[in-house]
């Protein structure tokens, strides 16, 4: 977490660095910095989407002077690499949003028309709408979790007024 927050802090600052132009000439490039960065919680050795995890990121970001903009990945280590666990992650995050957490800015969800994943095998036809990379939830489950998130966002707006 600290490395990611340090990277956000660095990215927010102006920089000058050697570069090459389109014509192949040496040049000095300049940036004004990008303050619109975010941190993604996707889990690691353990999931990191629960309230305590989000509060720890927020606290550390504030200490560094970084705006706590958090995205939470419902897949990967946060779901134990089981796409059917993504709705559980979304429910936890939706509850945090409904309770008024404004530091959570979004979620990443592995979604496709057909649940699961398939291998790309030469000569074997693919199932239309099913992932060949990460396992996904299906369309109906995607609609349900997005509706849960929309409801939680409406609740957050209601209590923040």
Descriptors:
161 residues, TIM Barrel, 3-stranded parallel β-sheet, two-stranded antiparallel ribbon, 7 strands, 37% helix
Summarize the structure.
This protein is an alpha/beta fold. The protein is built from 4 helices and 7 strands; from the N terminus they run αβββαβαβββα.
Helix/strand layout:
Blueprint: H1 2-11, E1 15-20, E2 26-31, E3 39-41, H2 51-64, E4 70-73, H3 86-98, E5 104-108, E6 114-117, E7 130-131, H4 139-160
Parallel strand pairs: 3-4, 4-5, 6-7
Antiparallel strand pairs: 1-2
Helix pairs in contact: 3-4
Question: Can you give a write-up of this model?
Answer:
With 161 residues, this protein is an alpha/beta fold. The model has no long low-confidence stretch (mean pLDDT 96). The chain contains four helices and seven strands. The strands form three sheets. It has a three-stranded parallel sheet. Strands 1-2 form a two-stranded antiparallel sheet. Strands 6-7 form a two-stranded parallel ribbon. The protein has helices at 2-11, 51-64, 86-98, 139-160; strands at 15-20, 26-31, 39-41, 70-73, 104-108, 114-117, 130-131. The radius of gyration is 20 Å and the shape is globular. α3 (86-98) packs parallel to α4 (139-160). The longest helix is centred in the C-terminal third of the chain and has 22 residues, at 139-160. The chain has one domain: TIM Barrel, CATH 3.20.20.
């Amino acid at each position: 977490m600290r490395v990611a927050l340090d990277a956000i802090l660095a990215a927010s600052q102006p920089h000058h660095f050697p570069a090459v132009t389109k014509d192949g000439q040496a040049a000095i490039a300049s940036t004004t910095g990008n303050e619109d960065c975010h941190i993604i919680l996707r889990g690691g050795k353990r999931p990191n989407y629960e309230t305590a995890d989000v509060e720890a990121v927020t606290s550390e970001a504030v200490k560094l002077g970084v705006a706590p903009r958090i995205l939470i990945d419902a897949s990967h280590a946060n779901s134990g690499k089981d796409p059917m666990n993504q709705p559980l992650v979304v429910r936890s995050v939706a509850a945090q949003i409904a309770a008024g957490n404004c530091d959570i800015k979004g979620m990443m969800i592995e979604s496709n028309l057909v649940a699961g994943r398939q291998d790309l095998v030469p000569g074997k036809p693919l199932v239309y709408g099913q992932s060949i990379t990460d396992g996904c939830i299906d369309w109906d489950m995607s609609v349900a979790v997005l509706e849960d998130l929309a409801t939680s966002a409406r609740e957050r707006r209601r209590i923040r007024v």
